[in-house]
Amino acid sequence: MRPSPSPVLSLLFVLYCLEMGVFLLLWPWLAAWDRTWSQLPWYTIRHVGLAPLSRAIVSGFGAVHLVWGAHDFDLWLRRFRR
After folding, report:
1. Residue 52 lies in a domain
2. What is the tens place of the pLDDT at every residue in 11-21?
3. Is 32 part of any domain?
4. What domain count does the chain have?
5. Is residue 2 part of a domain?
6. Half-sphere exposure of 5 (CA within 13 A, CB side)
7. Which tens digits make up the pLDDT trace of 50-65?
8. Which residues, 6+ apart, have CB-to-CB distance to 49 below 8 Å?
9. Taking CA 39 as the corner, what is the angle to CA 31 and CA 54, rounded to the nearest 5 degrees?
10. Enclosing domain of residue 38
11. CB 29 within 8 A of CB 59
């Protein structure tokens, strides 16, 4: 059994997961995503990056971060309610 991390590190990890989750969930659907991918000189990579499937994959990764952060926050709350 590994030792549990300190409460501060656990909370920082939760904040990281929530921040990155929101960022990755929303950024692919903003105009900044289009501008970033449109500036690439390679047509094939640009086409893949602008495809809705690529946007959905990145958003799904953001959703995973949100769920993971919520799970760890729940564990953090349970640990300190005792």
Report:
1. yes
2. 999 999 999 99
3. yes
4. 1
5. no
6. 11
7. 999 999 999 999 999 9
8. 36, 37, 40
9. 60
10. 7-81
11. yes
